[in-house]
Amino acid sequence: MSSEVNAHLRQQGCYGQQREYQIVKGRHIRIAIGSKTKHKIFNVPMLALAEKSKLRLHIAWAWLWLAACGLVAIPVYLLIKSGLGLNARILDFVILAALVAAALVGLVMLARNFARKRVFFTAYSKVPLFDILISKPDHQSYKDFLDILESYLHQNRSEWNLKTDQQIAGEIRMLRRLAGEGVISQKVYEAAKDRLFSISNKSSRSAG
Q1: What's the gap between Cα 173 and its chain centre?
Q2: Which residue positions in the chain have pLDDT lower than 50?
């Protein structure tokens, strides 16, 4: 491990997607997500993160969609067959077997990829920046990395006593960069920027 990397964690998400998180110089989190053909790497300053992360369910939506389609298609096919008065046993077997197989594959893969995740947001605009799967690849590795991450988060907040306007300006710059890198959409960036300007104006009026 490079001397500038304080801790790292590797995980595997849905569809074999690789995730890697590195704490760099105690100041940034470097996130690498993707496959060999499509890889995304971006950096998030510790100071830009909200004090607390949130727990969410990690659902493989593609597998859920496959399972739902398979389950719904079976009675629909039987109703259409009954209405048309069709009687093709071999065709019935093939179609129903395919639909049942699709539903079973979807349910099995959904169960295998179902997990909880910890989502990290920006401090002021509450934009979700990245998430870490809980207890992946194992509980101890996950816990050790999270403990180090939270330790550096607290350390950065205590060392850098920035004013609200300074933090908001830094958050806007970071979100603009992430939008340019394709990490967040331009629509998310514009909405976050409006929220941050609103917070900044309220803070200025309160200070005045």
Answers
A1: 21
A2: none
